[in-house]
Write a sequence for this structure.
């Protein structure tokens, strides 16, 4: 009976005793050695580092993952030798669990990215007369800025229009670009009661035109003037025309994207596309409100609505992130870390209520508990607006503990999200580099020149 067996793994010989092999009689190595003829050398073409780890497992009873081996490759290798992942030592199990979690995230991101980048190859479901090559070319021009030089130019123009629209919207809200209400505007505002206010309107109009404050000439008193709505926000005409031109551009672009998109169902799965549609709708709602009822343009309720619409139109800024990898990774990381972020919010909320209750009891500077909760959140997140502060020793002590607790909670929970983002972003960057390398000439594409051929 052979007491020692010779195993040749990738050119390196190992001598293994029968006693050592009998520790794991059902393993692949034991079965191979016991089935071999006497003095026969067993040849195996397997990874050497993995075999050394398996042999160490026979010797010490501890199975460690070699630093030179990929976790996924090593787990497949130990299955070949007749072992399973549960045999891996505890110290390496933690690393393996982290690796598995990271791989799941990367696989999910690949699916997410593939859905985003590859749906232009699908057949169009919204436009039967335009399909195949021309549909694909048109869609890539509209949606893929790296397609060719024309796509890049169109993308730059689109970004410039977005910035112009955003700046115009901001300027329209500034008082220096407001225009004074003219007589026709005042008539629309007052309606049937315009005659009762005509003398005040004429007085205000001549003031805007550089006149003097001659109250007696217009039979106007200071008391009437103080109660009169002398200022209204009227849109600047040139800026309004620029805004309309931007809206026309976005409308044409949106129609083209809807016509040439590969799938309407898939088109509306992306938040940026929904934002585009919403922004265009909001722009036309604004225009319609101006045209349908001009009198309502000067009412306070109308301007409240316009302010809301302007905020929604600012969503166009997200178009700037359409072709930025980091932005897509950030969106995916937020979706993928919802549980962690929700857990952080729950912890902050519980502690905020606790510290708010304490400071409300110890400090008279807080009128109600809701105000104290606001203070606790601002303190725990280290923002510290300073609009309300503790006024006595007890309240200050609670404030110190509250701020310290917030720092600890955020420091412990935020890295869960940050690490996830960094890992996926690094993967996305490396994937982009690989795609760029694929565009270069490969060795098989190389053809020797006549000089090299001699």
């Amino acid at each position: 009976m052979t007491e020692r067996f010779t195993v040749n793994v990738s050119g390196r010989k190992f001598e293994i005793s029968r006693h050592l092999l009998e520790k794991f009689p059902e393993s692949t190595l034991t079965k191979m050695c016991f089935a071999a003829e006497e003095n026969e050398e067993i040849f195996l073409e397997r990874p050497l580092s993995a075999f050394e780890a398996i042999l160490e497992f026979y010797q010490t009873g501890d199975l460690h993952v070699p630093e030179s081996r990929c976790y996924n490759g090593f787990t497949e290798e130990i299955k070949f030798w007749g072992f399973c992942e549960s045999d891996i030592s505890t110290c390496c199990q933690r690393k393996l669990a982290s690796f598995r979690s990271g791989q799941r995230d990367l696989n999910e991101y690949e699916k997410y990215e593939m859905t985003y980048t590859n749906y232009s190859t699908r057949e169009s479901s919204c436009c039967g007369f335009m399909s195949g090559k021309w549909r694909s070319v048109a869609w890539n021009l509209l949606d893929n800025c790296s397609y060719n030089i024309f796509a890049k130019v169109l993308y730059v123009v689109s970004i410039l229009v977005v910035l112009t629209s955003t700046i115009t919207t901001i300027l329209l809200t500034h008082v220096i670009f407001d225009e004074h209400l003219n007589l026709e505007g005042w008539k629309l505002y007052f309606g049937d009661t315009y005659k009762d206010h005509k003398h005040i309107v004429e007085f205000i109009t001549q003031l805007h035109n550089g006149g003097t404050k001659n109250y007696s000439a217009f039979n106007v008193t200071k008391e009437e003037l103080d109660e009169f709505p002398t200022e209204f926000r009227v849109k600047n005409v040139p800026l309004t025309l620029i805004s309309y031109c931007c809206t026309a551009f976005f409308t044409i672009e949106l129609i083209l994207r809807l016509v040439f998109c590969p799938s309407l169902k898939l088109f509306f799965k992306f938040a940026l596309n929904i934002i585009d549609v919403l922004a265009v709708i909001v722009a036309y709602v604004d225009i319609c409100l101006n045209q349908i009822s001009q009198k309502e343009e000067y009412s306070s309720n109308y301007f409240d609505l316009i302010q809301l619409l302007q905020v929604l139109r600012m969503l166009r800024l997200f178009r700037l992130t359409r072709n930025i990898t980091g932005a897509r990774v950030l969106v995916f990381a937020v979706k993928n870390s919802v549980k962690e972020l929700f857990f952080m919010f729950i912890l902050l909320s519980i502690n905020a209520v606790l510290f708010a209750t304490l400071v409300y009891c110890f400090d008279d500077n807080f009128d109600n508990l809701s105000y104290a909760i606001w203070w606790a959140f601002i303190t725990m997140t280290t923002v510290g607006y300073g609009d309300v502060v503790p006024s006595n020793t007890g309240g200050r002590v609670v404030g110190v503990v509250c701020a310290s607790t917030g720092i600890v909670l955020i420091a412990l929970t935020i890295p869960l999200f940050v690490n996830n983002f960094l890992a996926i972003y690094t993967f996305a960057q490396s994937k982009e580099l690989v795609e760029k390398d694929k565009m270069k000439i490969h060795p098989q594409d190389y053809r020797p020149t006549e000089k090299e051929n001699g």
